[in-house]
Structure formats: structure tokens, C-alpha cells
Amino acid sequence: MFDTVKNRRTIRKYLLKDIAPEMLNDLLETSFRASTMGGMQLYSVIVTRNAEMKEKLSPAHFNQPMVKNAPVVLTFCADFRRFSKWCEQRNAVPGYNNLMSFMNASMDTLLAAQTFCTLAEEAGLGICYLGTTTYNPQMIIDTLQLPELVFPITTITVGYPDDIPSQVDRLPLDAVVHQEVFHDYTSEDIDRIYSYKESLPENKQFIEENKKETLPQVFTDVRYTKKDNEFMSENLLKVLRKQGFIE
Length: 247
Ligand SMILES: Cc1cc2nc3c(=O)[nH]c(=O)nc-3n(C[C@H](O)[C@H](O)[C@H](O)COP(=O)(O)O)c2cc1C
What we know:
Blueprint: H1 3-6, H2 21-31, E1 43-48, H3 51-57, H4 66-69, E2 72-79, H5 81-89, H6 99-122, E3 126-130, H7 137-144, E4 150-159, H8 173-176, H9 187-199, H10 201-209, H11 215-223, H12 226-242
Antiparallel strand pairs: 1-2, 2-4, 3-4
Helix pairs in contact: 2-6
Bound molecules: flavin mononucleotide (FMN).
Flavin mononucleotide binds next to strand 3.
């Protein structure tokens, strides 16, 4: 049971084979069956197939090669604009230019995005999420001409897999699941939970390559630093204001 999900891995290399528009539309339409707050469908998806548009999007994603190499790039956006316009056209006053509404639209957007990914993988396609979407939102907003109350949440590159990489580990079930109430982690729990990850040769190599002492240091000092996160948080708030989601 659940073999497709159990065997899945992120795919970053794609064949030069296109995805038929009918198939893509079918996958998208089916993914919009995902749960959605109040049935409002607070998202829009921008489909990029055009090479010139991929070229323009590429720097926003730090030139990750998947953007130019995938046949299809999908930018999933939180969208309270469509619904707000409907309200205004029907003598209703929308109150959705606030953080709560951004959260609600973001949740809707990610549910649709992940449902799309699961369906696409079931159909034999490979996907990669691009977290860079929220690192450089303004570049994406400009390129895709996103108006007020529309905000890029995530990007998914999709295509037929070329390379099938090995699977990435996951934490043991009891590290993540708590029965009835949250059970805080003792230092012994932390040692046990992360021991498999720390034992992997690729992670030991990762520590060496980055000249660090421990695996978490690779995250805190190199990959996801406080300085970068603070800078990007400020930027995110600035762009959220500009898009009219917060005052
Ligand atoms: C929110 C999010 C952002 C991600 N951003 C990137 C990215 O920018 N580039 C990339 O190559 N992979 C990205 N990934 C994929 C993860 O690296 C990948 O899911 C993780 O390493 C686990 O591997 P697996 O999906 O093969 O199990 C992202 C995944 C998520 C959920």
C-alpha cells in the first residue's frame, strides 16, 4: 500500500519530453479537489513553459538548473484577489488584507500544491519544490506580473524523471508523532532520533566538506543561517506590505 509515496524522491533531472497540456490540466484540476478554506480556493497557479520566461525566472531561484531544464515550472500563489474582487462586485466588503488571510491563502495554496505533487508522481512524473520562491518574491512578482493580494508561495518544477536518485532518510516515527500531548525531547531522545542521520556517510562527508564539527552546524552556519533568515524575513514583510497583504 502507498507504494508511490513510499518510494518517492525529489527529481531534479528531467527528460526532454514535454508534458501534454491535457495531462497537466487534468492533474491541476484534480489537485484543486484538495480541501480549501470555506470553498474559497485561495490560490492561482502560473504555468511556465516558455524558455524565455524560464530564463527570466531563473535568477529568482538562484539559477537552480531545474527551472530551465524542466518542461513545466508551476508557481503556486496565494490569491485573495479573485475572491475580493467577487466580493466587491456583489456589494460585499472584503476584509482580507491582513496576516490571517495571508496564512489562510498560504495553507490553501500548499494543500493544492502538495496534492498536485502526489498526483503527478502517481502519474509517473517527477517534481521538485523550490523554496527560493519566498527568498526572492519580488523578482517573481515582477516576472509573472502578480498584482496586489497575489503572492508566490512555492514553485514546483515538473517533468519526466531522467535520473532516479537514492532516497533521502526520514526521522523515526516516534520522533515526530506524540500520543495525546507533546512529549518534550530529552537529550537522550535527541541522540537517538538523529543517530541514523548522523551515521550516514554522505552526512559525514557534508560535515568535512563544510569544515564543521557537527551536522547541525552545517545548517546553522552554512545552509540556513540566522543572518540570512533575518534578512529574508525583513524582505518578506516588505513585499507582503507591497502586495497589500499587511498594512
Ligand atoms: C518547502 C520546500 C522547499 C524546497 N526547496 C528546494 C530547493 O530550492 N531546491 C531543491 O533542489 N530542493 C528543494 N526542496 C526539496 C528538498 O530538498 C527535498 O524534499 C528533501 O531534501 C527531501 O528529499 P526527498 O524529497 O527526495 O525525500 C524543497 C522542499 C520543500 C518542501
